[in-house]
Amino acid sequence: MCQLLGMNCNVPTDIAFSFRGFRQRAGVTDQHSDGFGIGFFEEAGCRLFLDYKAASESPIAKLVDHYPIKSLNVIAHIRKATQGVVSLANCHPFQRELWGQYWLFAHNGDLKRLPRGIGKGHYYQPVGTTDSEQAFCFLLENLRSHHDTMPSPDILFAELKVLTSALAGYGVFNFILSNGQYMFAHCSTNLSYIVRKAPFTTAHLLDEDVTFDFSTVTTPTDRVAVIATQPLTDNEVWTKFEPDQLIMFIEGEPVWEQRCLHTRKTAAITESTTSEPHA
Amino acid sequence: MCQLLGMNCNVPTDIAFSFRGFRQRAGVTDQHSDGFGIGFFEEAGCRLFLDYKAASESPIAKLVDHYPIKSLNVIAHIRKATQGVVSLANCHPFQRELWGQYWLFAHNGDLKRLPRGIGKGHYYQPVGTTDSEQAFCFLLENLRSHHDTMPSPDILFAELKVLTSALAGYGVFNFILSNGQYMFAHCSTNLSYIVRKAPFTTAHLLDEDVTFDFSTVTTPTDRVAVIATQPLTDNEVWTKFEPDQLIMFIEGEPVWEQRCLHTRKTAAITESTTSEPHA
After folding, report:
1. Which of A17, A248, A253, A269 has the fewest CB atoms within 10 Å, i.e. the most exposed one?
2. Inter-chain CB proximity B66 and A46 less than 8 Å
3. In angstroms, what CA-CA distances link A198 with A120, A158, A222?
4. Residue A35 confidence class, pLDDT cut points 50, 70, 90
5. What are the tens digits of pLDDT across the range B208-261?
6. Residue B86's closest chain A neighbor by CA?
């Protein structure tokens, strides 16, 4: 298994405090040492740092610690390999372009016995060997097949709900997905979030004895949602996702929430398979 | 204009020496200070470092200097903006997936008056606002449209020659393109290369007083091609590309060379335009 970290805000925010605690779980406070990745959206651009070294030791993770990058949307991942060897091609987040936007995706879980060819589509194909990248390609393939241009957020959410539900039938499917504007987070087993807004207070990390006073760096209108496999602080109230819950965050707020019931699995997977001439 | 650096080898090689000289041109020995990027292929994976800061100052460029990453194929770029604002989305190299492989592309030049919609295709769309990313998407779109799977290298070279020739009719089109296995380099105006192989000697940088003895880190069978807008060393013989020359490097060797005559421009661009329902 792996651990996920996401941030979605209404003002460009530095994720250094959260990432500092998170990366301790890659070998110090936990064993997610088979590579890491962190991707920052900056306007239309996207900056992705990957390493197959543990985030607790990687010089690239140290750079991220000390080079504050402000972003509206960030996705990070520390890996404990279940499927796929330890290699750069299997490090999350994965990145693709859809509708002229970059999309990032990171997964915690294990999708077993995915039908052969899932994810190997007309528009997208996996490069590495993980079930996670297959799932990401499956999501994008279906969205792209149904829409030549970006649909409205409610349609996007509804379609992702159906596609997510289909994949979640194959195993544990906690994920975070973003196009730099919206952030989608789905929970099968473990995912929590917190929305920090005024009045801002002081937070204390769970994984390292570090305290930070958010009131010193924020304005009253700032809103920052942080999503993580396990809460990152021990003095704040985190909300645990329900099983099979998909939430769409916009500007630091959980806007759409829905339980994904596994009723559309067959339909969605069949639909995808027929659109995969090269499977 | 910008400057390009590429490396294609038969054994994973550290590009630190070349990059050290190259990044001085981003503000110290030359004025290419509007962002930089360097992408390393590592087996199927690809690691891309981008910054809109000058490579001579960027902490990310310093990391690359001190964190030796061995790779068979590397593409780097320092930008002096001609089209498109200074932003992360406009930093080269650009990355996309094609046939289940990552592809990187960097451009030095200026393509003027590209037909509207070029690069905005069925499979690929630009995210930023540069002519360069449009050209990259145009190349991949046409390759993908003609082949569901990767063709043989001779067919790939022949098709890239036609597509390159079509785009080169619109202006200066020096570029380096790679899928992690092959490296294609095209010259309109300025591009040179050197193949280092046994007996390895000592090289001295042009942009900084640094000398390196390659014989201390190589074996007799190693072969490393380095491609750059301007030679990086002052005591070695670099080969200047001819105008309109496309070379395909495999395992450190220039394998196919061809002059691109601008005869197929109309045909190729028309072909692309008809395959762009969303243009």
Report:
1. A253
2. no
3. 45, 31, 7
4. confident
5. 999 999 999 999 999 999 999 999 999 999 999 999 999 999 999 999 888 765
6. A45
Give the whole-number percent of chain B exceeding pLDDT 70.
91
Chain B residue nearest residue A91, CA to CA: B45
Per-residue pLDDT reduced to its tens digit, A138-194: 999 999 999 999 999 999 999 999 999 999 999 999 999 999 999 999 999 999 999
Contact A67 B87 (CB under 8 A): no
**Residues of chain A contacting residue B60, judged by C-beta atoms under 8 Å apart:** 63, 67
Determine, for residues A87 and B44 on separate chains, whether the beta-carbon distance falls below 8 Å.
yes
Longest Cα separation, chain A: 55
Q: What is the mean pLDDT of residues B155-175?
A: 95
Mean pLDDT of A236-253: 96
With beta carbons under 8 A apart, name residues in chain B contacting A44. Answer: 87-89, 127-128
Looking at residue B106, its amino acid is A
- DSSP secondary structure of B72-101: EEEEEEE---SSS-SSGGGPSSEEEEETTE
Domains of chain A: 2-274 (3.60.20.10)
Which of A73, A127, A129 is the best residue to mutate to test the B interface, defined by the most B CB atoms within 10 Å of its own CB? A127
Cis bond before residue B93 (omega within 30° of 0): yes
3-state secondary structure of A65: helix
Q: CB under 8 Å, gap of 24 or more: what pairs does A268-273 form? A: A268/A142, A268/A162, A268/A163, A268/A165, A268/A166, A269/A115, A269/A118, A269/A166, A271/A142, A272/A118, A272/A121, A272/A138, A272/A141, A272/A142, A272/A145, A273/A115, A273/A117, A273/A118
ipTM of the prediction: 0.90
Phi, psi angle pair for B239, to nearest 5°: -100, 125
Q: Stretch A207-230: mean pLDDT, rounded?
A: 95
More confident residue, A105 or A115: A105
Please report the pLDDT score of residue B278 as a whole number. Answer: 29
What pTM was computed for the model? 0.92
Contacts of B96 in chain A (CB under 8 A): 97
CB pairs < 8 Å spanning A and B: 93
Neighboring chain A residues of B149 at a CB cutoff of 8 Å: 278
Inspect the interface and report whether the beta carbons of B43 and A89 lie closer than 8 Å. Answer: yes
For chain A, say whether B97 makes contact (Cβ under 8 Å). Answer: yes
